[in-house]
Design goal:
Length: 449
């Protein structure tokens, strides 16, 4: 990894900055490495240096410091030092404290697989039937609560449609918070999240057309509620999409039990958003052979790290399992080999027509898609008037009003065509990465509108 990719692994900006300050040789001792791991000791304020180690396969980090952040600044600093001063690391057998950690990671992985297999074998047919009956009873009870919540929400939306949007801002955030809280009580957390997003549009003074965007969002929420009330009439794949958007969840074990898709997956874009104490990271992968998109959605609480470390500008051979959907995008990583730096070119970069056609097909199969990954090749960014991307044929793609990195995008382009990777909502694109001069440049989008 290069420095930018390593810094993208930091849990926050302060950890990235502190890690950069620890990337000098003077801070470290007892540096070593194997093909799969690196380690070192960093002198802190105490007498005993902090022991830091990295499993390069994922990568995964461990440090003896008291920090609750993951990876901590010492892990980031050690990785940066490896990238800039590789010869300082001595090849050889790892010390006991490193080999113990690597062995424990392997044992935990094997134990988890064994436990899952034993659990499946130990369940008798009678126990399985009883568990299924209890689960169905819980599901029926929840269905009733969700149905009552949706009926209340649609009445609220119909009243709002009759009254209009002109007085919404005067009502204040409490008007939105109350209905969102009632959706949480009805176990429709997905609808509650959509209502909070609508509230953000209502009070965002930087949106020049907030009324239009808000009206679209409210119409989409109403359509989603209607679809949920008519769930048995929908195709099975679309039923899964509606249930997920309303708030039902699917266990990772159920997803990973399916057959996966094997490919070399390029990590092309990423953004992180905060929701109170929870951080959500969205990472977009694209298969080199299949050209298929995959969205990896990860959550972390507080300073906790993400379970998988995926850095934009890298790639790995692996198997992904996709969630059941009318247009599958969200996936889980079932198997991941060692990663490498992205190749000097993007595989099968589609034309603008092909990209928009893919979006049209996805929307026809799942009308509730609110974002879609696009690779736009040979586009020139422009700042004049409304910021946009222009193709060689003169067609333009508007940039989203919430995009905050226009000037870095212009600087990377220098007035020349570049390849832009971003999220498209049907009206505008939020650039997340730019491929220029055989290198992927990632924008630090902590929040995306």
């Amino acid at each position: 990894m290069n420095a930018d990719q390593i810094l993208a692994l930091a849990p926050d900006a302060s950890s990235a900055k502190a890690g950069s300050q620890l990337a000098g040789p003077a801070k470290w001792g007892n540096l070593g490495r194997t093909e799969t791991a690196v380690w070192g000791e960093c002198q802190g304020s105490g007498k005993v240096p902090y022991r830091t180690q990295i499993d390069l396969g994922e990568p995964a980090f461990k440090c003896s410091c008291p920090s609750r952040k993951f990876p901590c600044k010492h892990g980031i600093g050690l990785y940066l030092l490896l990238a800039s001063h590789g010869p300082l690391f001595t090849d050889g057998a790892p010390p006991q404290w490193v080999s113990d950690w690597l062995d424990s990671r392997q044992q935990r992985s094997e134990k988890k697989l064994q436990s899952a297999a034993e659990k499946a074998i130990a369940t008798t047919p009678e126990q399985a039937a009883a568990q299924a009956a209890a689960a169905q009873k819980r599901e029926d009870k929840r269905d009733s609560k969700v149905a009552a919540g949706i009926a209340e929400l649609q009445t609220w939306l119909e009243d709002l449609a009759r009254e209009g949007l002109s007085t919404l801002r005067a009502r204040g955030p409490a008007f939105w918070n109350d209905i969102a809280a009632r959706m949480v009580d009805a176990q429709a957390a997905g609808l509650a999240a959509r209502l909070r997003r609508a509230s953000g549009m209502c009070f965002d003074t930087t949106l020049p057309d907030w009324e239009t965007q808000l009206a679209r969002e409210l119409a989409s929420i109403y359509l989603l509620g209607t679809a949920c009330r008519r769930l048995p009439d929908l195709p099975p794949e679309l039923q899964s999409d509606v249930r997920t958007l309303v708030g039902w969840t699917v266990s990772q074990e159920e997803v990973l039990a399916q057959a996966g898709v094997q490919d070399r997956w390029q990590v092309l874009a990423q953004h992180t958003g905060d929701n109170e104490r929870i951080r959500a990271r969205t990472t977009w992968l694209r298969g080199m052979a299949s050209g298929r998109w995959a969205m990896i959605l990860q959550y972390a609480a507080g300073t906790q790290g993400y379970d998988k470390v995926l850095a934009p500008g890298t790639q790995f051979d692996g198997e992904l399992c996709f969630y059941h959907s009318a247009y599958p995008l969200r996936a889980l990583i079932k198997q991941q080999d060692a990663f490498s730096t992205l190749d000097a070119s993007l595989a099968n970069a589609p034309t603008l027509d092909a990209s928009l056609a893919a979006y049209a097909e996805a929307l026809a199969r799942n009308p509730f898609l609110d974002r879609f990954p696009l690779v736009l090749d040979a586009m020139v960014p422009h700042a004049g008037g409304a910021p946009h991307l222009a193709g060689a044929d003169g067609r333009i793609i508007p940039l989203h009003a919430g995009f905050r990195h226009l000037w870095p995008l212009l600087a990377l382009s220098g007035g020349h065509p570049v390849t832009v990777i971003g999220e498209w909502d049907g009206y505008a694109i939020v650039p997340l990465s730019v491929f220029a001069e055989n290198r992927l440049h990632h924008f630090d989008n902590e929040t995306v509108a």
